[in-house]
Amino acid sequence: MVRRRRVFAALALLNAIELVGVLAVGPGFWIGFAVTGSLLGLYLVHLRNRAIADRRRRKVQAREAAWLAARQAEVRREQARRAAARRETQRRLVAQREAVRRAAMGLDREPSDLPVAANGGSVSYRRRGGLRGRAYEAGGRHHTA
Fold first, then answer.
1. C-alpha span between 88 and 73 (Å, rounded)
2. I want to staple 102 with a disulfide (CB 3.0 to 4.6 A). Which of 52, 72, 108, 134 is the partner?
3. Where are the beta strands (DSSP E) in 1-145?
4. pTM reported for the whole predicted model
5. Contacts of residue 24, Cβ cutoff 8 Å, sequence gap at least 6
């Protein structure tokens, strides 16, 4: 960009010098003025064509960037939808496991379905059948005391 400005400035300055030469010195500078003027005109046409091509290129790049952004947004939406579906499936699985656990423990029954305790309505958590295993006093082949 800087180089283009320098070239344009140099051609414009040369053209101005040639025009001053025509006015100050004589008509012999008209040939130089015609050459530098035509070069300046051609360079302006070149700059205009380049600007148009750059604008087209930027439009194409912007269109491609917009297309890419739309595709990425679509992918992100699909990923979010899949993640939500996974979370919902996980929540259902946890609820199902909890229901199976409650059913296995008998917690899913209504209070009216539960049996009435035999000792006046209170619940005892003691085991009914004695202790597990044998008492130390019962003896055995490993107890020597």
1. 22
2. 108
3. none
4. 0.48
5. none
